[in-house]
Specification:
The structure is a homodimer of 216-residue chains. Chain A is mostly helical and 216 residues long. Chain A contains 9 helices and no strands.
């Protein structure tokens, strides 16, 4: 599942998209958008197993060379396509009530992972990243890192409102919410449901301790 | 990393270990133990990348055919070797104080994952399992399922002592402890440390909510 990487380095925009017969040179941003749209469609329809740069090239009309200029591997292209899907579907709301916002967000996250093929895709991306350090670094840099920062900002505002205890490390909270869901996705001992999403938020905000050890 | 599986089915003991030159037919349990010991040593020394049935055969003296009778794939053999390591290193203590026990256990778990090559091994096993449904099922059946049951029994006794709230779902607690650690292992946005292990137990037992939303 984890194809070898090509030699190119970054995924930043370039201006050298190859012209196609009968067309003038099209703007790079347009070509890039078409490639990502094609990648996203393929990824969500057929998953990582059938995802190749060749198929994205055929569907988008861009050349493989052009695609490889922007994305050094099929994993990098799949990752960017996945990020675009998530950013569209899973915005971070901040209504001023952290418990309601976290619950709504985690329920939406579970629906995204389980109600569509996105869960299979991200599980395979994380799976491939275990033996592909380049993909692992890209995953952190382009996906989990930026989304973590946005979630942490929401938690920080909740702390300022007094809805989180002052000493709480928001990064650990994120691991105990997202990590719990990813664990059910990746290992699947138990089903990943919206009810589970509600329970993990409640556990984390109110605590699972009983009357004997809970100092509250 | 995820090699094809052979045709054999189970990993249960057999009595048909091939005799070696100069030796009589040795008991199957003895041969099986030697194979597992060799597998474990290879796995912890060189990780999954260099782990092959061929190398385990050379090191243990058992034939590849014998090994394949018990383990249908290199993944299945690596998994059983890993389970043996974990069962030896990570027993579930129950001293009667759930917070102290969970904290000690999670610190030990983090040391196991980060202080030895075991973390890399289990990350690669989970990674492979994302595209190998047979390995995924074995992982649940032989590793995560039985260990979850033992952890749940410890949590159940804590609930009976009043150290966990009566309505708490112990499976979700396990996901919020183990899952948080696996998430840091697999995605590694932030370091997996013993301090993190302490924090996630405290968050979960006492709650992260502040004075405004926390009803306690």
């Amino acid at each position: 599942m984890c194809a070898a990487r090509g030699p190119a380095a970054g995924a930043a925009g370039r201006t050298d998209a190859a012209p196609r017969p009968g067309q003038g040179r099209r703007p790079a941003a347009l070509v890039r958008g078409e490639v990502l749209a094609a990648a996203r469609e393929l990824l969500l329809t057929d998953g990582m197993a059938a995802f190749t740069v060749e198929r994205v090239a055929r569907r988008s009309g861009a050349s493989r060379m052009t695609i490889h200029k922007w994305w050094p591997s099929r994993g990098a292209l799949a990752l960017d396509a996945y990020v675009a899907v998530v950013d569209e579907r899973l915005a971070f709301e901040d209504t001023g009530d952290i418990e309601a916002d976290l619950t709504a967000h985690m329920r939406k996250f579970v629906r995204h992972l389980c109600g569509t093929s996105a869960g299979r895709v991200v599980a395979e991306l994380i799976g491939c990243a275990q033996t592909d350090p380049h993909l692992a670094a890209l995953f952190r840099e382009r996906y989990s890192g930026p989304r973590r920062a946005r979630m942490a900002a929401v938690l920080e505002r909740a702390r300022e409102r007094g809805q989180l205890a002052a000493e709480i490390d928001s990064q650990a909270l994120i691991d105990q919410l997202w990590g719990a869901c990813y664990f059910r996705l990746l290992v699947a001992d138990n089903p990943l449901t919206e009810g589970f999403a509600e329970v993990i938020v409640r556990n984390l905000l109110h605590g699972a301790g009983g009357h004997v050890t809970d100092p509250a």
